[in-house]
Amino acid sequence: MRISHEWIYQSIHADKHSGGDPRRSLRCRKGRRKRYGSHDRRGIIPERVSMDERPAIVNAKRRFGDREGDTVIGKGHRGALVTLVERKSPYTVIGSLEHEKADAVPKTVTEALMPYKERVRTITYDNGREF
Prior knowledge:
Layout: H1 5-17, H2 56-60, E1 66-73, E2 80-86, E3 92-96, H3 104-113, E4 122-125
Parallel strand pairs: 1-4
Antiparallel strand pairs: 1-2, 2-3
């Protein structure tokens, strides 16, 4: 015996219009379908500026001193790093965070870039919400 998907939908539709409960046709007869995945509960960054709005000279990658910053969280949240990658060259400065709080990032970035303070022009972050 062969049953097409159209026949299944037609029988559910006919049952619904004759007063039946369409939830009985679901696999587990529950009122709602299971939602897979989850939404992000960390909120929206206030006063966020898009990476597309950075100056054209920075996007061109023609000068040294423009860096992109990001945080890397360790497995099981057992540590974190701040990476600052030069946009023109692959030169990277990495700093270790003392604790996983947002207020530790500026201090770590300042300490990591202190030897290069004459050569730092801009730092662009990816607006991630790691913490």
